[in-house]
Amino acid sequence: MSDATSTSSRWYHFLAPSYWPTWLILGFMRILAWLPTSLGLAIGRGLGWLGYKLITKRRRVTLVNLRLCFPELSEDERERLALEAFKANGMGFVETAYAWWRSHSWAAKRVDAVGLEHLNTALEGGRGVILLSAHFSALDLSGPLILPFVQNSSVLYRPHNNALMEHFIFKGRSRFCRPVDRKDFRGVRRSLKENRCVWYAPDQDFGLKGAVFAPFFGQTAATLTITARMPGLNNSPMLMFSAYRENNGRYTLMFEPVEGFTGDEVADATLVNSVIERAIRRHPEQYMWMHKRFKTQPDGKQKLYKAAGC
């Protein structure tokens, strides 16, 4: 969706009954943004627990992923990790409301940065910075959290199929960054030429188009090849950017250089996956394991998930 399309939409364009459930969700999120933080996050954990019990398909997908990625854990340990992941993503739902509607000063008071020297050095080059990332549960909140260190950033994302939700996603994220359609590489190049940080998360399965098979947690995973070529858009450095929720109510942002691309598609995809994997292993419960990361396989079958009934 273009900038013009997203910003020209108004609430009265979405009065049809088909949008009413979305309005209820958005209204609930708006209420959550007003609540005290401790209460809001407690509600988020409760929503995650409820999701674990009721959303059977996503629970099964999560458990399949955890069996593949953490074979050293017992079944009970994986089930506990799955429940914690749902709770973390429930809190992420609440934190999205904070990102869209709370004052940026709220986030600034709660953030610590590790590896900030790498970010500053990269920005001093004046060619923009690619922030390689992953789908952690505090995904949207990482935007306001990074503002004390970076005022100009862009985020690559896939526009939502629901036009009303897309309107609010675009509007909410525009408070702290420039949303860019993930297919708009001219927009990416423009952001880099403006010395912006460009957030980019290639850790999901987008099928075989533009991808190669590379290991991820020891499993074969379809991995985008464009990631290794993105620095060439403006000769820009790449950093791994991770956002973690800590037990003391604070958040940690980590910046780590990503180097060593060779031009070999499989080797570069393997490097990208290894960097993302290392970041996930620090707080595996805060990753979005609900996605079918290994659905695309060399044999063309989704047997890993079909066997589990999902």
Question: Could you name the key traits of this structure?
Answer:
310 residues, two-stranded antiparallel ribbon, disordered N terminus, alpha/beta
Could you explain how this protein is built, in words?
It is a single chain. The protein is an alpha/beta fold and 310 residues long. The protein has one domain (3-306). Helix content is 47%, strand content 15%. The chain is built from 13 helices and nine strands. The chain has helices spanning 3-8, 20-34, 37-54, 56-69, 75-101, 104-108, 116-124, 142-146, 163-173, 185-193, 226-229, 265-282, 303-306; strands at 111-114, 129-132, 153-157, 178-181, 197-200, 211-216, 219-224, 238-245, 251-257. It has a seven-stranded mixed beta sheet. Helix 2 (20-34) crosses helix 5 and helix 3 crosses helix 5. The protein is globular.
Q: Globular, elongated, flat, extended or rod-shaped: what is the shape?
A: globular
Number of strands: 9
Overall domain count: 1
How many separate helices?
13
Short description:
This protein has helices at 3-8, 20-34, 37-54, 56-69, 75-101, 104-108, 116-124, 142-146, 163-173, 185-193, 226-229, 265-282, 303-306; strands at residues 111-114, 129-132, 153-157, 178-181, 197-200, 211-216, 219-224, 238-245, 251-257. The protein has 310 residues and is α/β, with parallel strands linked by helices.
Spell out the blueprint of helices and strands.
Elements: H1 3-8, H2 20-34, H3 37-54, H4 56-69, H5 75-101, H6 104-108, E1 111-114, H7 116-124, E2 129-132, H8 142-146, E3 153-157, H9 163-173, E4 178-181, H10 185-193, E5 197-200, E6 211-216, E7 219-224, H11 226-229, E8 238-245, E9 251-257, H12 265-282, H13 303-306
Parallel strand pairs: 1-9, 2-5, 2-8, 3-4, 3-5
Antiparallel strand pairs: 6-7, 8-9
